[in-house]
Amino acid sequence: MSIKVLAISDYREFHSVRPEAEIFIGLKKLGLDVHVMTYGDCEYAQIFKDAGIRLIDFHPQEKFNKVEQKFIRDTLEKEQYDIIHLFNSRAIIHGIRAAKGLKTKVVLYRGYSGNIHWYDPTAYLKFLHPRVDAIMCNSVGVEDIIRKQKMYNKQKAVTINKGHRTEWYSNVEPSDIRKEFNIPEDAFLLINVANNRRMKGIPYLLKAINELPEGLNIHLILLGKRMDDPENMEIINAGKYKDNIHLPGFRSDALSVVAASDVFVLPSIMGESITKSVIEAMSLQKAPIITDIAGNVELVVDGESGLVVPKKDHQALADAILRLYNDRSLTEKLALNAKKRIETELSTEETIKKVKELYEELLQS
Prior knowledge:
alpha/beta, 7-stranded parallel sheet, 6-stranded parallel sheet, about 15% strand
């Protein structure tokens, strides 16, 4: 008998959910009986149906709602699922409660390496809840944080990266961002794609740019929301490269802008897992410069598929940028190896295989 699985998640944004959605399409192809509970009008709805996956048009709208919880409970009792796999906060809280007293194994997903503490009562509503049978962690860094929690079964956490396929990005054409912002065609173009939050460490990147020798043909694009906050603007305006730093804001064509750049820089200081924007840049064959925070540090082999620098060290970041600026052959080598690393170490096929193995192990225990 095949393993019967119910996944509950939000699949409305095609691009952002693709690595996750493809897991269940792959599991279906391997013979599992996969059902997905999500918004019926989501972009992936027809794709799931075409793959033979049953779609249940429902997703919790509130964190605590007995009616929504009962809907999930009724579905679990009727369908007798072996596994329920939960991916976001509302799904997790409702799904755990709905599975109370049932034989269904409860699997959670965790893609963020912070904010789980054994002394926080709210943690026991989700990731530290005793009803949870396994937590699929998107990086070793996430797994380590969960395993460090006191009064918790540390065997529940297992690292399974959300894989990608580089062919997803094969049709991405470089944008005309250089022409749009009067950036010279021969400029060494750095890019960061993020919504500006403290954890992203953008001030350290801007300080790194200010440390570069004057007069270099280097430009930086900060793509995302709130990049023009007062702290960032103060650093930009105090530097000698203020005219070479561009803030387009949020762009729906972010991948095309990345494709038009030379190097992707992510100066994060905490809280990431394996950042999707870096994976995308590597899949587009762009050399990454990242910091050594938990999670992301697993993504890049320093000096082989990118450069890794200490977090909160703007001088080290400046040195890495200057190194690639002065050695374009190294930049090209790192870019090529970055794409190969995604294909070999973070493939969707490997993810599907490991998730199936996790399910089988849980049902044998």
